[in-house]
Every structure is written in structure tokens, then in C-alpha cells.
């Protein structure tokens, strides 16, 4: 066996690539909004929201620095793993949550108007800003929030912490201990759903399109799945950035390594967060995104690792089984694993600049 191939396989045995969640980059997330106006700062914090494959599917128009119109950028949709755009609108909900938190901290009240029906030409949401008393929020939590792929502590989540995680909406947010029968079932279904998706050729092609291996490509596109965000560091990271191509992700060695990594992730956590919705509607998905972002920010504050693992939602045959076993009456829309961690690395997920996705219009 040739040395480069040996190193390649060794690296793959440690790191999985095939995963639908927000991930990072080798460098700075995005330019900090130092010296920029309030609306620019709000949009900067909003853009730090998570999105599947780090696709960042948002487009914004700002009118007179008082009205923000948010559009779904369908050119960034994941047609294979997210054909109904559920995850896309969840990402927009997370964007809105960050924007609302940062606006309040900067001394603005937000009037949110969601569109009744989705249309590509119309905004998904309109946010009207009005000056108000500040509602302080620790914006560092938004900046340091990140998806963790490392093994989590398998100890049970403390009762007080579980209450904190489910507090935003106890009716929609469900918690299952990893050691319980339901938690073990979620883990197994996640592994099997991931395996099914990993061998889907169309999903493989879609994944490859969002991989950003070289530093040059990361800096040029500021989105997608990168080595640092997937925590492929050191010699392994150097090798991937300089010698691998995104199309290599379709090789059997990549696929098997991803499955092995997913098994370790699913079996190393303290519990599972499940979010349900009253139906498959754009408004319901956006609300799910806001809840997801609130939970993830709370995890950041509590020292809990958080990783969306939605394969059992994306693969419909597994979704049916999970809904039946958990006794879920509403629509299953989101799954994530959580667990205590001793070390949280600095976030490195790249983001496009505010100017890249925003038009400022003065009338």
C-alpha cells in the first residue's frame, strides 16, 4: 500500500465527513462588524446561525435601516437530503432568532411579520425595527456557539439543565436520556439512517458540492463543509487540504469512515433533543429554527456539546419508525444529541460577509 493512501485511510478512520449539520473553516468566521451601524451588527450576529452543510441560505434587503426583509436563497437549498426545504427554513428561523437577540441587546424592538405563503419572489419574513430600551443578552454566546462532533460525556444531563433546555417550549421540545430505551432507539435509528443516506449516490454528489477542502476555496466561498469545522486538524487536516478533492468523499473508505464516526457520535452523549411541530409549514419550520437556536445557545452557556443529527428525519422510512416508537403526535422536525464536554474549541465556521448577502436601500 502506498504511503499517501495509508495516511489517507488512517485519517478517515478518525474523522467522518458525511453529515448534515453546520460546520466550519480553517480561518476567521467572518469580519467582525467593528465601526459598522446597528443593523449591520444585527445581520452579522444573525449570520452566525447554523445551517445544513453550512449552506447559509439567506438573502436580505434593508430599507432605510429600519425594515429588514429576509428571503430564502433557494440556490443554496439541498435538493437531495432536504427536498421540501424543511432544514432551509429551520436555518432561517435560527437566523431570525440571532437577529432578534442582537437587536434587543442593541436597543431595538423587533416586530416580526411572517409571510402567509412561501414564494421565491417574496420575503419569508419582515422585521420592523424601532428604538426601545435595551434587553441585554450575552452576544458572546452567539459568537462562540458551534456544532461539536467530538464524543460527549455519557453521564445523565442534570435535571435543572434539562429544564433549561426545554423551557422555551415544553410542548414542542422533548428530551430523552441516552441510557433509556427511547434514547438508545434514537441512536440506532440515526446510525442506520445515516448509513442509508451515505450510500445514496445523489446525496454523495450533493455533499461533494459543499465540501471546501483547500484554504483557497474556503476563503473564496466562505461557506460549506471545511476541515477545521469538521475538526480535522494537525497532519490529517494538512493532508486533506493539500492532497484531497471533494470528489474523494464518494470513495468507499470515506463512506465507511463516516459511518464509524457517526456510530461513535450517536453512542456517546447524555441525551437527545427532539423538536416537533404542529405541521409541515414554513411558519412551523421557522419556529423550530428559533427553538433550535435557543437550545444551542443554552448548551453553549451550560458547557453542553450539541450536534444536530437529522438523518432519521431526512430518511422517511426511519422517520416513521422514530415517530411510532416515541409516540409523537405532532410532526417530527429536528433531532440533536447533547452531552457535557470538558473542552470547547473556538468556533471557526466560515461565514459570508454581511455585504455579500445584503442590499442596503435608502429611500
TrEMBL record:
InterPro entries: Nitroreductase-like (IPR000415). GO terms for molecular function: oxidoreductase activity. NCBIfam families: Rv3131_FMN_oxido (NF047509). SUPFAM superfamilies: FMN-dependent nitroreductase-like. This is Nitroreductase.
Amino acid at each position: 500500500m502506498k504511503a499517501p493512501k495509508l495516511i489517507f485511510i488512517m485519517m478517515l478512520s478518525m474523522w467522518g465527513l458525511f453529515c448534515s449539520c453546520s460546520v466550519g473553516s480553517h480561518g476567521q468566521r467572518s469580519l467582525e462588524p467593528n465601526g459598522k451601524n446597528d443593523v449591520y451588527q444585527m445581520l452579522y450576529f444573525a449570520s452566525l446561525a447554523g445551517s445544513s452543510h453550512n449552506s447559509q441560505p439567506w438573502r436580505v434587503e434593508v430599507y432605510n435601516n429600519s425594515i429588514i426583509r429576509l428571503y430564502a436563497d433557494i440556490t443554496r437549498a439541498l435538493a437531495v437530503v432536504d427536498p421540501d426545504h424543511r432544514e432551509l427554513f429551520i436555518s432561517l428561523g435560527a437566523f431570525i432568532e440571532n437577529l432578534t437577540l442582537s437587536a434587543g441587546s442593541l436597543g431595538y424592538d423587533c416586530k416580526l411579520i411572517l409571510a402567509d405563503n412561501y414564494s421565491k419572489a417574496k420575503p419569508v419574513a419582515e422585521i420592523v425595527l424601532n428604538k426601545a430600551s435595551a434587553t441585554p443578552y450575552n452576544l458572546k454566546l452567539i459568537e462562540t456557539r458551534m456544532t461539536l462532533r467530538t464524543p460527549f460525556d455519557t453521564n445523565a444531563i442534570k435535571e435543572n439543565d434539562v429544564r433549561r433546555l426545554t423551557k422555551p417550549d415544553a410542548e414542542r421540545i422533548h428530551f430523552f436520556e441516552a441510557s433509556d430505551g427511547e434514547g438508545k432507539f434514537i441512536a440506532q435509528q440515526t446510525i442506520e439512517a445515516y448509513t442509508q443516506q451515505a450510500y445514496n449516490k445523489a446525496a454523495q454528489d450533493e455533499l461533494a458540492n459543499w465540501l471546501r477542502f483547500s484554504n483557497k476555496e474556503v476563503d473564496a466561498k466562505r461557506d460549506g463543509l471545511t476541515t477545521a469545522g469538521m475538526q480535522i486538524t494537525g497532519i490529517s487536516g494538512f493532508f486533506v487540504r493539500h492532497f484531497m478533492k471533494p470528489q474523494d468523499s464518494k470513495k468507499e473508505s470515506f463512506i465507511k469512515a463516516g459511518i464509524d464516526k457517526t456510530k461513535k457520535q450517536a453512542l456517546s452523549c447524555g441525551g437527545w433533543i427532539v423538536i416537533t411541530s404542529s405541521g409541515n409549514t414554513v411558519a412551523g419550520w421557522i419556529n423550530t429554527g428559533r427553538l433550535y437556536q435557543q437550545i444551542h445557545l443554552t448548551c453553549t452557556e451550560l458547557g453542553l456539546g450539541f450536534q444536530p443529527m437529522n438523518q432519521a428525519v431526512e430518511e422517511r422510512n426511519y422517520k416513521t419508525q422514530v415517530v411510532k416508537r416515541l409516540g409523537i403526535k405532532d410532526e417530527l422536525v429536528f433531532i440533536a444529541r447533547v452531552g457535557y464536554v470538558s473542552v470547547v474549541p473556538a468556533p471557526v465556521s466560515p461565514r459570508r460577509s454581511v455585504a455579500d448577502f445584503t442590499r442596503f436601500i435608502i429611500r
